[in-house]
Specification:
Length: 482
């Protein structure tokens, strides 16, 4: 497709700027640009078609099934958007005095109170802009806690091998040494490996439960006790909260700090580099270290902004992505406590339904029930036919659905991870299972066709590493003029 600059025709206009009613003023010549701004020159319909074409090239939750494991691609209710576009929320400025923005601050406190109840924590900041940013904030709280006690020998963070890649990255960014411990054969934390690795140098443990295999670790109380007994703190990666809302709380499992991806579990749009929110909740022992500008309710009921005395500082400007928090609060309020619990129950039911439909065709990485997601291994298929998890995932695009997560978690070979979420109906799950089955049948008869998939998209298999390492982010006018 053409870029807007390539569609540009010299002199073409999409708007007629009305004559101004105020007298014009002369600007200092030094402030004027020397050459006119290079903007694409387009008519209104050119612009409209350009964006329609762009829109048709992407795939979102509104286009169809999107079982991207660990990413919780659930439907984002339109009501969230309506509330987030109310002028009283969009027309305020982060620098205006707190007493003139009490409604917006009420949103933050109200959201904080509800989410703290949901996860069993005492305080919460909305400053971090995403999950990984929340992890970094949470681990800095743990670090500052140990430092405040003069306990400076704690240099290690324990992370199980089933962890999301951001966990070890976070610990190491915060200056810790990462200690990787293996999982037991059933996918849970290997308790003997944990015991062998905790000690006076343990700053903490990072864990997600249910883990990235979709398994709830039943030994969780023992795990957090082992870490606490050694003087460490426990960090809960709450990106998987979609499985347990209303059923279990990280605070009750013994965790001291948790991040929530509001852009996953709480239905605010994500993907495409849009804004997110990595809310970080903590127990009272960590509250003195929270980032500054913490909205708190004063004795008279008004809301003020607190800079905790031993704060780790600022993690992002102002209050974080306020409109994302507002969308999440809208979602929470619309569903209510019972509705959130039902959402989680349905997410778990949907995952198990799809898992059972695929059973026999695709061996699950672990036996038994899963939580909100499950992982299958295509290792046998690859050995037998040469068709990889990547080939199957790409073929699913031609079948009209978004692929599941591929090659994650790292401990499962040729992994595909399905997370259907609660917002899908039975027909969608049935259709997805038949699509997978027909691809698996084709793998035996025409494997080459699957190596070539997808064939229905504008591009087939992009150079993903090249795109990540050397992204082309600006239009090269010089090159275009050649
Ligand atoms: C998505 C996810 C993260 C990271 O969240 P971002 O918002 O992408 O930074 C961390 N842990 C788990 C388990 C996740 O699924």
């Amino acid at each position: 497709m053409k870029l807007s600059f390539e569609r540009s025709v010299a002199g073409r206009r999409g708007v007629l700027i009305p004559k101004t009613a105020v007298p014009s003023a002369r600007l200092d010549g030094a402030l004027l640009r020397k050459a006119p701004l290079r903007l694409p020159e387009l008519s209104e319909i050119d612009v409209s078609r350009h964006y329609s074409e762009l829109e048709q090239q992407v795939y979102g939750v509104n286009d169809g099934f999107y079982p991207l494991g660990s990413c919780t691609m659930k439907y984002n209710p339109a009501l969230n958007e309506q509330v987030a576009s109310l002028e009283g929320f969009t027309g305020i400025h982060p620098l205006q005095p707190a007493e003139t923005a009490q409604g917006a601050l009420e949103v933050l406190v109200y959201a904080k109170e509800r989410l703290c109840t949901l996860v069993g924590m005492d305080e919460m900041t909305f400053q971090p802009a995403a999950g990984a940013h929340g992890e970094f904030t949470g681990i800095l709280l743990i670090k500052r806690y140990h430092e405040s006690r003069g306990d400076c020998a704690r240099k290690k963070i324990i992370v199980p091998d089933s962890a999301h890649g951001t966990n070890p990255a976070t610990a190491s960014m915060a200056g810790y040494t990462v200690v990787n411990i293996p999982s037991a054969p059933d996918g849970t934390v290997d308790l003997s490996a944990l015991c062998a690795n905790v000690g006076p140098d343990t700053a903490g443990l990072m864990l997600t439960n249910p883990n990235t295999l979709g398994i709830f670790d039943k030994n969780i109380l023992e795990i957090t006790k082992i870490v606490h007994d050694a003087g460490g703190l426990c960090y809960y990666d709450g990106a998987n909260m979609n499985a347990i809302m209303g059923a279990a709380r990280p605070g009750d499992m013994g965790f001291d700090v948790v991040h929530l991806n509001l852009h996953k579990t709480f239905s605010t749009p994500h993907g495409g580099v849009g804004p997110g929110a990595g809310a970080v909740g903590c127990k009272v022992i960590l509250a003195p270290f929270l980032p500054n500008r913490l909205p708190v309710r004063n004795a008279d009921g008004s809301i003020g902004l607190l800079d905790p005395e031993q704060s780790i500082g600022r993690m992002k400007s102002f209050y974080g992505n306020f409109l994302v928090v507002l969308r999440a609060l809208t979602y929470i309020t619309m569903l209510g406590g019972d509705g959130l619990q039902e959402a989680s129950e349905t997410a778990v039911l949907n995952a198990n339904y799809l898992r059972v439909l695929l059973e026999g065709e695709l061996p699950a990485a672990n036996e038994g029930f899963c939580m909100h997601e499950f992982v299958v291994s295509l290792e046998a298929l690859k050995k037998e036919t040469g068709v990889s998890a990547m080939d199957v995932a790409k073929s699913l695009i031609d079948a009209g659905m978004h692929p599941p997560t591929m090659y994650f978690p790292l401990i499962v070979h040729e992994a595909l991870m399905f997370e259907p979420t609660e917002t899908e109906g039975k027909e969608t799950l049935d259709a997805a299972a038949s699509a997978v089955k027909s691809i698996l049948a084709r793998a035996k008869t025409e494997p080459e066709a699957l190596h070539a998939a997808p064939v229905t998209t504008p591009i087939g298999r992009p150079d993903e590493v090249g795109a990540a390492r050397n992204p082309i982010l600006r239009y090269d006018f010089m090159e275009a003029a050649k």
